[in-house]
From TrEMBL, chain A:
Pfam families: ABC_membrane, ABC_tran. Coiled coil: none annotated. Residues 307-518 form the ABC transporter domain. Keywords: ATP-binding, Membrane, Nucleotide-binding, Transmembrane, Transmembrane helix. This is ATP-binding cassette domain-containing protein. The keyword Transmembrane helix applies. GO terms for cellular component: plasma membrane. SUPFAM superfamilies: ABC transporter transmembrane region, P-loop containing nucleoside triphosphate hydrolases. The lineage of its organism: Bacteria, Pseudomonadati, Pseudomonadota, Alphaproteobacteria, Sphingomonadales. GO terms for molecular function: ABC-type transporter activity; ATP binding; ATP hydrolysis activity. It is a multi-pass membrane protein.
Automatic annotation (TrEMBL), chain B:
SMART domains: AAA (SM00382). Its main location: membrane. Coiled coil: none annotated. It comes from Tsuneonella suprasediminis. This is ATP-binding cassette domain-containing protein. The chain crosses the membrane at residues 21-41, 47-73, 139-156, 162-180, 244-265, 271-289. It is a multi-pass membrane protein. It comes from the Bacteria. Residues 313-521 form the ABC transporter domain. It is found in: Cell membrane. GO terms for cellular component: plasma membrane. InterPro entries: AAA+_ATPase, ABC1_TM_dom, ABC1_TM_sf, ABC_transporter-like_ATP-bd, ABC_transporter-like_CS, P-loop_NTPase, Type_1_exporter. Pfam families: ABC_tran (PF00005).
Length: 518, 521
C-alpha cells in the first residue's frame, strides 16, 4: 500500500503540471480576447503559484514517503544480512573489507534504487497516460500526435535501448576493473617502490586508463543514442503540437480539421506537451541507480539465500573424524584434510601463512560449508554441535565491559572464583594484580598487549567448558617467555580436552599427537 | 580548485569547451523552442481570429521551420554535450589518475600514511567524486545559456518582466546554496563521517567472525553496532529530507517566477506567451546546474585532498638500474660483509621479519641497523632499494599476469630471463605447462597458484632484480621436503654464480644450510 502511495504522489506532480498549463492557457486566452483582463491575470498568477505549491508538495511527499519506505527495507535487509555476515554458515567467507562493502555500500545501492528508481517506474507509465488523457480533453489531434511520437520512441528504444543497456552494463564493469587495478596497485605500492618499478607501473596505469577511456567512449557513443532518442521525441512532440495547433488556428491545415481549437485549448496542449516525456526522463536519469541496485542484488541475494538455509542436525562433541575435508574458493582448493581426534589430545594443523589453516578450523566449527568431505562426531555420523566447540582467536574480540565479563562472556553463569582461577591459569594474574579483574575494557583493548589479549581469548575458551577448543595461531607474535607459557598451558589443557591448533610454530608442532600439513 | 586539478592534466579541456558549447546549443534551443512555439501558436490564434487577410499575411513558414530546426538542434546539442563531456572527463581523469598515482608512488614507504588501506580507499572515493563533477561540468555553461536566453525572450514582453526574471535567476544559485547550508550541508558531512565509523566498526567485528559464530555473540554484536548504524540512518534520513525539500522548493520557485513574469509583462500577447514558456524553461535550466553546484559543495574536502596530492612536488622518475657495489651491513655492533650469507635466528616475535623489512626500506627498524655505517633510517629509500631485493613473507603479488609480476623486478625482462629465474624457484615447469604460460592471470588472492607457489613466484621476482643483497623471509614455507631441497640447492648454486649476499630468515632447518653463519637476535 505504502509502495503504491509513493507512486501516487508522483502522479500528483503531473496533475500539478496540468494546472500550471491550464493557468497559462487561461491567462494567454484572456489577454488575447482583450477587455477587462486584470482579474483574469491575477487569478491565473494565483493559480500558477498554487500549482507550484501543489507540485512541490507532491514531489516532496513522494520523496519523503519513498525515503521512509526505503529505510524500512534497509532495516529489514540489515537484520537478515548482518547476522549472516557476522556468524552465518557460508560457502566462502568474505574478507572483512568486502563484508563491510556488502553490508554498507551494496545495501546503500538498494536504498538509493528504492528512493530514486522505484517510485518513478510506475509514474513513467501512469504519468504519460494522464498527460495524454488531459491533452485529449483540449485537443484530440494533439493527443494523437503525442501518441504517434511515443510509438516511434518505443520502436527506437527497442532498437537502441536494449543495446544501450547492455553497453551501459559493460561500461560499469569496465570502470570497476579500472578502479580495481588502481586499488591493487596502490595497495602494493610498498613492494612496487622496493623494486623501483613506480615509473613503469605508473605508465601502465596511464595506458590502461586511456585504453579504457577510449573503449568507454566507443560504448557511450551507442549508449547515449537511447537518451538522444528520448530527447528527440520530447522535442519533436512539442514542435509537432505547436505546428499543428498553429496551422489549425490559422485554418491552413492540409487536411480537414477534425476539431475546432480555441487559443486556450491549443495553448494548454502546448504547455502540457513537455510533461509527456518528463516521467520517462526521470526514469532514464535514475538508470544508474537501477544498475547499481542490480549489481547489489547479484551479491546480496545469494547471501540471503545462504542465510535462509535450515540449520544442519548436529551431535554434541565426543571426538571427531575428519574425512576428505576440502574447501574450494573459486579455483583455489584447500585440503583434502583427514584426521581423527578423541576426547583429549592435540592435533596440529600447519602450513604457511595463507595456506588455509584458519579456513579449515572454521570448517570444523561448522562456520564454512565444505565443498567435499565431512566432519563427524565419532560414533554418530552427525557434525559436531557448535555449542560444544570453543574458539581461541588470534586477536580475540573485546566487548565493552570488565576484564572478568570478557573472560566469562561465553558462559555468563560462571562463578567469580572460576573466572579468577582460569585467569591465573592462562597467565593473566599479573594484569589482574596490576589493574584489577574489574578493569574496564573497550573494543580497542584498553592498552592490553597482544599477548594479554590472546590470553583473554584462551581464558574465555577454558571458562566456556566446551570439550573441543580450536586455536588460531596461539603463539604468533609473542615473545619467547610468553610463547613458552602458552605452549605449557596448551599441553596441560590437552590432558582433559581435545585441541585443534593451527600454527607454524615448531614448538607447538612437536606438542601435537598428530600434525596435518596443508 | 577543480580548475587547477583539471589544468594539471591538460588534456580534455578543449573537448570540455566543445561539450559546453553543445550544451549551450541544446539549452538555448530548448528554451527557444518553447518560447517560439508559444509565440507561433498565439500569433496564429490571433491571426485566425482576425480573419482571412490576417491569415494570409501571417508568415508561418519560417517559424514552423524554425521550430522543427530547434527540436533537432536541441537533440544534437544534448547528445554532443553528454558524449563530449564524458569523453573529456574520462580522458582528463585517466591523466589525473596517472598523475595522482605517480605522486603517491613517489612517497617513501617509511613515511607513507599510517593506514595505507584507508588512504587508498579515500583516494579512490575522491577520484570517483571528482569524475562525477567533471561529467556534469558542461551543464553549467548550458544552464547559464538557458537562463540568459530566457531573460532575452522575456524582455520581448517588457523590461519589468525581464528585470524580474534576471534577478530571480541570479538569486537562484544563492538561494540554493543557502538551502544547502540550511538543510543538507551538515547531514551530508555527518553521513560521510558516520559512514567511515560504520565501516570501521563493522570491519573490526567481521574480523572476529569465527569467535562471534562459535560463541553465538551475534546479538551482543548487533547491540554494539546499533548506535553506529542508527546514527548513520538518522543522518541519512536528514540528508534525504533536506534534498527533497530543496527539490520541492525549486519547483515552487519556478511557478512563482512565471507568475511574476505574467504579472509584470506588458507586451503583445504572442510575445507574452513566448515569455511565459521561456521563463519556465530558463528557470529549470538554471536550477539544474545550481543543484550541481550544491553537490560540489559537499565534496570540497575531496577536491582539497586531491589538489594537495596532485600539486606535490615529488614525482616518480625512471629507476636507473645499474649494478651497485655491495655495502656492508651492521646489526647492532655485529657486521655482515658484502657477499656473506647469514641466517638471522631468534624466537618468533624477536623482530626477524622487521629486520628484513627495515633493510628493504618498507618499515623503520626496531634496533640499530646500519648500511655502510649509516643508520638505515637515515639512508635514502632509493639507495636502500639498489642494495636489496626482498622476498617477503606474504608474497605481495599484483593482480595481473605472472609476467606482470616478474616485470616489476626490472625493466625490459625477456621470457628467457624470466624462465631462468623461475627455474631456480622450481616453478618453470609448472608455468610452462599452464595453458597461458607467463600470461596466466593472478587474481588478488593468487588464483590458480597455491600458497607455496606464490611464495616461489615472489622468490623468482627477487632474483630477477639483480641486487647485491638478497633478503629471504621463510623461502620454503609450505613446500614439501623434496621441492624444498631442490629450491635450496638451486638457490645455493645461483648465489655462488652471482656472488650475491644473503640475509635469510627461516623456521625450517634446511634453508639454513645455505648460510655461512647464524646471527641470533
Amino acid at each position: 500500500m505504502k509502495r503504491f502511495l509513493a507512486h501516487l504522489f508522483l502522479l500528483f506532480d503531473t496533475v500539478g503540471a496540468a494546472v500550471f498549463a491550464l493557468a497559462l492557457a487561461l491567462a494567454v486566452s484572456a489577454i488575447a480576447r482583450g477587455g477587462e483582463t486584470v482579474m483574469w491575470v491575477l487569478w491565473a498568477a494565483l493559480l500558477l503559484v498554487a500549482s507550484g505549491l501543489f507540485r512541490a508538495m507532491a514531489l516532496g511527499t513522494s520523496d519523503i514517503t519513498a525515503t521512509g519506505r526505503a529505510s524500512f527495507v534497509v532495516a529489514d535487509l540489515r537484520e537478515r544480512l548482518l547476522p549472516h555476515l557476522l556468524a552465518g554458515r557460508v560457502v566462502m567467507p568474505l574478507a572483512p573489507g568486502s563484508a563491510a562493502s556488502v553490508a554498507i555500500d551494496h545495501v546503500e545501492a538498494l536504498r538509493m534504487r528504492a528512493i530514486r528508481f522505484d517510485p518513478v517506474r510506475i509514474a513513467a507509465v501512469a504519468g504519460p497516460v494522464l498527460v495524454l488523457g488531459l491533452t485529449a480533453c483540449a485537443s484530440l489531434v494533439a493527443a494523437a500526435i503525442l501518441l504517434f511520437t511515443f510509438v516511434f520512441f518505443v520502436l527506437t528504444m527497442i532498437v537502441t535501448g536494449s543495446a544501450a543497456a547492455r553497453e551501459s552494463d559493460a561500461q560499469l564493469a569496465a570502470l570497476n576493473t579500472l578502479s580495481g587495478l588502481l586499488e591493487d596497485r596502490l595497495r602494493h605500492l610498498p613492494i612496487i617502490r622496493h623494486f623501483g618499478a613506480e615509473e613503469r607501473i605508473t605508465r601502465q596505469i596511464g595506458i590502461s586508463s586511456h585504453s579504457l577511456s577510449d573503449r568507454t567512449v566507443a560504448v557511450l557513443r551507442k549508449a547515449f543514442l537511447s537518451s538522444a532518442a528520448l530527447e528527440f521525441f520530447a522535442a519533436l512532440a512539442v514542435a509537432l503540437v505547436a505546428v499543428y495547433c498553429g496551422f489549425s488556428l490559422l485554418g491552413l491545415l492540409p487536411f480537414p480539421d477534425p476539431e475546432h481549437l480555441t487559443l486556450g485549448e491549443a495553448f494548454f496542449a502546448l504547455a502540457l506537451a513537455p510533461e509527456f516525456y518528463l516521467p520517462m526522463r526521470r526514469l532514464a536519469a535514475a538508470y544508474h541507480e537501477k544498475q547499481l541496485g542490480e549489481a547489489a542484488d547479484r551479491v546480496i541475494e545469494p547471501l540471503l539465500a545462504e542465510a535462509d538455509l535450515p540449520d544442519v542436525a548436529t551431535a554434541p562433541f565426543a571426538g571427531i573424524d575428519v574425512r576428505g575435508l576440502e574447501v574450494r574458493f573459486g579455483e583455489r582448493v584447500i585440503g583434502p584434510v583427514d584426521f581423527g581426534l578423541g576426547q583429549s589430545g592435540i592435533l596440529v594443523l600447519s602450513g604457511p601463512t595463507g595456506s588455509g589453516k584458519s579456513t579449515i578450523l572454521a570448517t570444523i566449527a561448522g562456520q564454512i560449508a565444505p565443498s567435499a568431505g565431512q566432519v563427524t562426531v565419532q560414533g554418530s555420523g552427525l557434525p559436531p554441535d557448535p555449542r560444544t566447540i570453543a574458539w581461541a582467536a588470534q586477536r580475540p574480540l573485546i566487548l565493552p565491559g570488565t576484564l572478568a565479563e570478557n573472560i566469562a562472556i561465553a558462559r555468563p553463569d560462571a562463578s567469580a572464583d572460576t573466572v579468577r582461577q582460569v585467569a591465573d591459569r592462562v597467565g593473566l594474574g599479573a594484569v589482574i594484580a596490576r589493574r584489577g579483574i574489574d578493569l574496564a575494557l573497550d573494543a580497542s583493548g584498553a592498552g592490553l598487549s597482544g599477548g594479554e589479549r590472546r590470553r583473554i581469548g584462551i581464558a574465555r575458551a577454558v571458562v566456556s567448558e566446551r570439550p573441543l577448543i580450536l586455536f588460531d595461531e596461539p603463539t604468533a607474535d609473542l615473545d619467547r617467555v610468553a610463547a613458552e607459557e602458552i605452549v605449557a598451558l596448551l599441553a596441560q589443557l590437552a590432558t582433559t580436552r581435545a585441541l585443534v591448533i593451527a600454527t607454524h610454530d615448531p614448538r607447538l608442532m612437536s606438542l601435537g599427537d598428530n600434525v596435518v600439513r596443508l | 580548485m577543480l580548475d587547477e586539478l583539471l589544468a594539471a592534466t591538460g588534456a580534455g579541456r578543449r573537448r570540455l569547451r566543445v561539450a559546453g558549447a553543445c550544451g549551450l546549443l541544446a539549452s538555448l534551443s530548448a528554451v527557444a523552442l518553447l518560447g517560439l512555439s508559444g509565440w507561433f501558436l498565439t500569433a496564429a490564434g490571433l491571426a485566425g481570429l482576425a480573419g482571412v487577410a490576417a491569415v494570409q499575411a501571417f508568415n508561418y513558414l519560417i517559424p514552423s521551420a524554425a521550430i522543427r530546426l530547434l527540436a533537432i538542434l536541441r537533440t544534437v546539442g544534448r547528445y554532443g554535450e553528454r558524449l563530449l563531456g564524458h569523453q573529456a572527463a574520462l580522458e582528463g581523469m585517466a591523466d589525473l589518475r596517472t598523475r595522482l598515482f605517480s605522486r603517491r608512488a613517489a612517497i617513501d614507504t617509511r613515511k607513507d600514511a599510517r593506514d595505507p588501506r584507508a588512504a587508498t580507499a579515500i583516494l579512490l572515493d575522491d577520484i570517483a567524486a571528482l569524475e562525477d563533477i567533471v561529467i556534469r561540468r558542461p551543464a553549467v555553461v548550458a544552464g547559464i545559456a538557458g537562463g540568459v536566453v530566457s531573460v532575452a525572450l522575456v524582455a520581448l514582453a517588457g523590461w519589468g518582466a525581464a528585470l524580474f526574471q534576471a534577478v530571480a535567476l541570479l538569486f537562484l544559485p544563492m538561494a540554493i546554496r543557502k538551502m544547502a547550508e540550511r538543510f543538507t550541508a551538515k547531514p551530508s558531512a555527518d553521513v560521510a563521517d558516520r559512514l567511515i565509523a560504520m565501516r570501521a566498526t563493522f570491519t573490526d567485528f567481521v574480523a572476529a567472525r569465527s569467535e562471534i559464530a562459535a560463541y553465538g555473540f551475534t546479538p551482543l554484536v548487533m547491540k554494539q553496532l546499533e548506535p553506529t548504524f542508527h546514527g548513520y540512518e538518522a543522518a541519512k534520513a536528514r540528508l534525504l529530507r533536506g534534498e527533497a525539500i530543496t527539490a520541492a522548493a525549486l519547483v515552487l520557485y519556478t511557478a512563482v517566477v512565471v507568475a511574476g513574469v505574467l504579472l509584470l509583462a506588458d507586451g503583445a500577447v504572442p510575445l507574452l506567451a513566448a515569455a511565459l514558456l521561456a521563463s519556465a524553461a530558463g528557470t529549470e535550466a538554471v536550477a539544474g546546474f545550481s543543484r550541481n553546484a550544491m553537490r560540489k559543495s559537499g565534496i570540497e574536502k575531496s577536491l582539497e585532498r586531491l589538489a594537495t596530492l596532485s600539486q606535490a612536488s615529488d614525482t616518480v622518475h625512471v629507476f636507473a638500474s645499474g649494478s651497485p657495489v655491495a655495502e656492508p651491513i651492521g646489526v647492532g655492533d655485529r657486521a655482515i660483509e658484502p657477499g656473506e650469507r647469514v641466517a638471522i635466528t631468534g624466537i618468533s616475535g624477536s623482530g626477524k621479519t622487521r629486520l628484513l623489512e627495515a633493510l628493504a626500506g618498507l618499515r623503520s627498524p626496531d634496533r640499530l641497523l646500519t648500511l655502510n655505517g649509516v643508520p638505515v633510517e637515515s639512508v635514502d629509500a632509493d639507495h636502500l632499494r639498489r642494495q636489496f631485493a626482498l622476498m617477503p613473507q606474504d608474497p605481495m603479488l599484483l593482480m595481473g599476469s605472472i609476467a606482470d609480476n616478474l616485470r616489476i623486478a626490472a625493466p625490459a625482462l625477456d621470457e628467457s630471463a624470466m624462465f631462468k629465474a623461475l627455474a631456480v624457484a622450481c616453478l618453470d615447469e609448472r608455468i610452462a605447462a599452464a595453458p597461458q604460460g607467463l600470461n596466466t592471470w593472478l587474481e588478488p588472492d593468487g588464483g590458480i597458484l597455491s600458497g607455496g607457489e606464490r611464495k616461489r613466484l615472489a622468490l623468482a621476482r627477487a632474483l630477477l632484480a639483480g641486487r647485491p643483497w638478497l633478503l629471504l623471509d621463510e623461502p620454503t614455507e609450505g613446500l614439501d621436503s623434496e621441492t624444498e631441497i631442490k629450491v635450496v640447492t638451486n638457490l645455493a648454486r645461483w648465489l655462488d654464480q652471482t656472488g650475491t649476499g644473503l640475509i635469510l630468515v627461516s623456521h625450517r632447518p634446511f634453508p639454513l644450510t645455505m648460510a655461512g653463519r647464524e646471527l641470533s637476535l
